[in-house]
Design a protein that fits this description.
Elements: H1 9-38, H2 43-50, E1 54-66, H3 80-90, E2 109-124, E3 128-132, H4 133-136, E4 141-145, E5 151-160, E6 165-170, E7 192-197, E8 205-216, E9 226-229, E10 241-243, E11 249-256, E12 267-271, H5 272-285, E13 291-292, E14 295-299, H6 302-307, E15 316-321, E16 337-341, E17 344-345, H7 351-358, E18 364-371, E19 374-381, E20 383-384, H8 385-397, E21 410-413, E22 416-420, H9 423-429, E23 438-443, E24 461-465, E25 468-469, H10 473-485, E26 490-496, E27 502-508
Antiparallel strand pairs: 1-2, 1-4, 2-3, 3-6, 4-5, 5-6, 7-8, 7-10, 8-9, 9-12, 10-11, 11-12, 13-20, 14-15, 15-16, 16-17, 16-18, 18-19, 21-22, 22-23, 23-24, 24-25, 24-26, 26-27
Length: about 500
């Protein structure tokens, strides 16, 4: 055990003076530190200002539940008569199954109602309420409960599954307290926000936190760009508002990440600027009317960017064109990289679907693409996404056209075993007749190529090599050899799956 060091009285006096000075300084700094710890003083003012516009959403749904068999009982059991009467009453006098009323094999129906709770907020004094689609999905009855306890029956104005938003209408006796949307693009990381809702049926609950991140993609839909916050959001908060300190709605609380089902400080809200476009369309048309470009896109990888001479890596790579879509007559081609749409930069692949969807249907927009290393501008008149989806579904239902018989020729290159598309191979890999190219019949992982890492697999069809179509393995091999002669390090392949959906894959030639 170490002995304490010897300290003379002068040193102790000096230490005591330093300690007193330090405590005095801490006492001065303590109020500021405490204020920062508890958050801005006006959180209470914001909550008081907006809480009457936040509502609870109560839904119910009638379901048909299966009623189990009558239990097996010994003959003459005193409980037999009781269970027989019980099952008969629960089935409402309906006939039984093969064993007669209450007998063995009877699987009668017992209708009952299930309820769920969520949150919402009023955006118009006349009674328009915003919430999440998943809060009211499949509901037979929707009720909006105001902060003062008033319950109002709600009608569904419209819903959108892609953004998980819904718009309701109630008919109040007097104008309601409403809140307005703010500008979510002005949010800064670390900015304070306030969530109000109905977590675990505890209505009017106020929680506060900061903006942890923006533009989060959690793979929940095509337009993911969530605000992430550490403000406590739990089950029942869905559909509730996320406010800034001006009392403006800057997000709609939608999802959480939680192993336990409760808040762990990772919640997500639909940004107000995304929600406004959807809500306005639901209010005006009862449905969404999103812009449609008619392209299939993928991420621009570093390999693909290098092969296309794109620096820095950016944009959305056009992997395929819908034959009925607006992009084709607008001059957009597979292999183009869209770097600007309607004057807005496309930094990542996921930027394009959101920007296109928010652009008015029928608008003529300039689209800047990089094609073979050079920038080009094309003008495209946008179609409507919902019309495109209906047309695609109808086309998929059409009968397949007859394909000419082709002799199968097998060749190996880049760790791939390749063959001409024959009727037998189309049947084996279920490849649609409109898919043309060279089919991959095997992938050899031992060769040391990048093919397995690029998710190439048997049944994939190589349509183009370096933006030139190939019809048989010999064509493909010739293109590969030509690229090697030119000193290329990477070959860019346009690859189709069995259903005709294409993507670009960059394979190393070294």
């Amino acid at each position: 055990m170490l002995s304490p060091p010897l300290i003379d009285p002068v040193s102790r006096l000096l230490q005591r003076g330093a300690l007193i000075a330090a405590l005095a300084a801490a006492a001065v700094a303590l109020p500021a530190w405490s204020a920062a710890a508890r958050g801005p003083d006006n959180i209470a003012d914001v909550a008081e200002q907006v809480i009457d516009a936040v509502v609870n959403i109560s839904t119910s749904q009638k379901v048909e539940a299966r009623l189990g068999n009558m239990p097996d009982l010994p003959p003459g059991s005193p409980m037999e008569e009781f269970f027989e009467e019980f099952f008969k009453n629960r089935r409402g006098g309906q006939g039984g199954g093969q064993g007669g009323p209450g007998g063995p094999g009877d699987q009668g129906q017992m209708p009952h109602r299930i309820t769920s709770l969520g949150s919402g907020f009023i955006i118009d004094p006349s009674g328009l309420v915003v919430t999440n689609n998943h809060v009211i999905a499949d509901a037979d009855e929707i009720n909006v409960i105001l902060n003062d306890g008033t319950k109002l029956t709600a009608q569904l104005v419209g819903k959108d599954t892609k953004s998980d938003l819904a718009l309701l209408r109630v008919r109040p006796d007097k104008p309601l307290k409403a809140v307005k949307f703010g500008d979510s693009d002005k949010l800064r990381l670390g900015e304070w926000v306030v969530a109000i809702g109905n977590p675990f049926s505890l209505g009017g609950t106020v929680t506060a936190g900061i903006v942890s991140a923006r533009n989060r993609d959690i793979n929940s839909g095509p337009y993911d760009n969530y605000i992430q916050t550490d403000a406590a959001i739990n089950r029942g908060n869905s559909g509730g508002p996320l406010f800034n300190l001006n009392g403006d709605v800057i997000g709609v609380n939608t999802a959480i990440i939680s192993p336990s089902g409760g808040s762990i400080g990772i919640g997500f809200a639909v940004p107000s600027n995304s929600a406004v476009a959807v809500v306005n369309q639901l209010r005006d048309f009862g449905e969404t009317r999103r812009g449609w470009l008619g392209v299939r896109i993928q991420q621009v990888t570093d390999d693909i960017a290098e092969s296309l001479s794109i620096k820095p890596t950016r944009g959305a790579l056009v992997a395929g064109i819908d034959e009925r879509g607006p992009a084709k007559p607008g001059g957009i081609e597979p292999g183009d990289v869209i770097v600007k749409f309607d004057g807005r930069d496309i930094k990542e692949m996921h930027d394009l679907p959101r920007i296109v969807a928010d652009t008015p249907v029928g608008k003529e927009v300039p689209v800047v693409v990089i094609r073979k290393g050079k920038e080009e501008t094309h003008t495209v008149k946008l179609g409507r996404l919902e019309d495109g989806e209906k047309a695609a579904a109808a086309a998929a239902a059409d009968a397949k056209k007859d394909a000419p018989e082709q002799k199968s020729v097998v060749q190996k290159t880049l760790g791939l075993e390749l063959s001409s598309l024959s009727d037998d191979l189309r049947k084996k890999f279920k490849v649609r007749d409109n898919v043309k190219g060279v089919i991959v019949t095997a992938v050899d992982p031992s060769v040391g190529t990048s093919a397995p890492d690029k998710r190439l697999s048997p049944g994939d069809v190589i349509v183009e090599v370096q933006y030139e179509a190939v019809g048989n393995p010999a064509d493909l091999q010739s293109r590969i050899e030509a690229l090697k002669t030119e000193g290329k390090k990477v070959a860019v392949l346009l690859v189709s799956n069995a259903d005709g959906e294409t993507r670009f894959v960059a394979l190393s030639l070294q």
